[in-house]
Amino acid sequence: METWIEKSRPFAALGFGEIMLALVAEAGEPIRVATRYHSHIGGTEGNVMAGIANLYDLRTGMITALPANSHGEKIVAGLRHWGVSNDGIIKDDSPKAKLGMYFLYPGIKPAEDRYIYDRNDTSFMRVALERFPKALLPDTQVFYLSGVTLALLYESLPKIIELLEICKAHGTKVAVDFNYRQKLWGPHGGEAAAAKAFGAVLPYADYFNLSRESAEMTFGLDHALTAEELAQEVALEYSIRYVSITERDPVLSSFEVTLYDSQADGAGHSKRFVSLPWDGRTGSGDACVAGVLGKLIQGGTPQEAADMGGACGALKCTVLGDALLKNESEVLRFLGSDGKERNR
Fold first, then answer.
1. pLDDT at 220
2. Three-state SS for 100?
3. Tens digits of per-residue pLDDT, 269-324?
4. 95: exposed, middle or buried (C-beta count within 10 Å: 0-12, 13-18, 19+)?
5. pLDDT band at 1 (very low <50, low <70, confident <90, very high)
6. Taking the model in full, what pTM does it have?
7. Which terminus of the chain, N or C, has less C-beta within 10 A?
8. How does 42-76 read in b/e, with b if 16+ C-beta sit within 10 Å?
């Protein structure tokens, strides 16, 4: 298979986004009486970098801004535990230094999970673009960001485009995940604003991931199209090499992914994983992207990448926390089993 990326660079992938502290209550406990929480770190780009590092033993890193205090130190320690480099961490020592946080109150079916965010005026929002370490971009094979970051920094979209220009000038591949969040895009105009932002970003993308719902609603594609046809439409519209479409069904508790390669005009399709435990679904899309993108960086085929993406997305539903910290052999063992064998 043709080499997709230049493998002699220090980093396989660098993510740009906000890392947050998550405080998670016990499942089914009402907000007004919740007293016990467990904490972990989370954030789309960090989840993906952790997934790639653990799955494929590749060097990944995060570019983000953290307060220069014990809160920031906790996040750095968490990234190290995940195997993610902190070379791109920007330390904010100003009096306004602040770490983003979110509270999760897991629901028990049919009740929904409830998220409460505190990310206004965080260190990431204030200084991440202003002090972005641009010198790192030529040192990475892939630069990754999501729609969460685009929404948070929507007013600074021209500065993000400047970063993508640097990537293109140095042959750094750009990977983008749609990851639409209505609460973040709403203040900017909702799906119309998202479509405008992605219309500016996607011409720089070499890999793009989105859900079937997003392909239909935001990009206006026909719901009658197959996942491969949806991916093909997006790839041709924006001249993107790889496009993956995730499909999740909360009724069946299922997860599957299709990866289209526009250069080969073909696709890989994962199996549909069903009857998944829905409690750990937070981060399942990030785990899928880690499985797909890391395998592409390794030089895998679309089918191999789709298999890994589907399996990682499904496995994440079985694990609490935001990130999937499995290695490739564990995922391959899961792919080869029918769920009935016991590992004794």
1. 86
2. coil
3. 999 988 777 566 788 899 999 999 999 999 999 999 999 999 999 999 888 888 99
4. exposed
5. very low
6. 0.93
7. C
8. bbbbbbbbbbbbbbbebbbbbbbbbbbeebbeebb
